[in-house]
Amino acid sequence: METIENIVEDIMLVKTKDDVISYRGSLFNATRKWWHAKKEKVKQADYVMAIVDNIVREVYKPDKRTWHLEIDTGKDILSFPGDRWVFGIQDDSDDGEYCKSMLAPDSIRKKYIGKKLGKAYQLTNQLAVRYSF
In terms of residue numbers, what domain contains 58? Predict the structure, then answer.
């Protein structure tokens, strides 16, 4: 499997797990919501990578106007009390029209999907969000 050693785009890498994907109904919904992050970083990211087991599963290009804070009530499979970042305005399946509108261009997706993150970008149990910039 090819390894990603250098990411030149401004990307927010988000780690999720298969049980979270199943609970939230899609990879898109498991990736798009409830992340603790700094506003400046979130607003700088042009893309969001969905990472499962340090392998890129998808790359999204959220409309920056849709980033917003939501209060996590702690009733989700992942409990993060307090304000958390979300992109997008609705839940959707991975094959739904809204999700498709958030996919990164094919040139970016082909560059990363199915590849393993190099050591500089790997996410740990304690680190669910990382940035390429």
Answer: 3-131
Residue ranges of E strands in the chain: 3-4, 11-15, 33-35, 47-52, 55-60, 68-72, 82-86, 116-117, 129-131
How far is it, in rounded angstroms, from Cα 48 to Cα 42? Answer: 9
**Mean pLDDT across 6-11:** 96
Cβ-contact 47, 60 below 8 angstroms: yes
CA–CA dist 8, 4 (Å, integer): 11
Tell me the pLDDT band of 74, cut-offs 50, 70 and 90. low
Split into its structural domains, the chain has a count of 1
pTM: 0.90
Would the CA dihedral through 26, 53, 125, 4 be positive or negative? Answer: negative
> Is 101 in a helix, a strand, or coil?
helix
How far apart CA 57 and CA 123 sit, in angstroms, is 14
Which tens digits make up the pLDDT trace of 29-47? 999 988 888 888 998 999 9
Angle made by CA atoms 98, 55, 66, in degrees to the nearest 5: 30
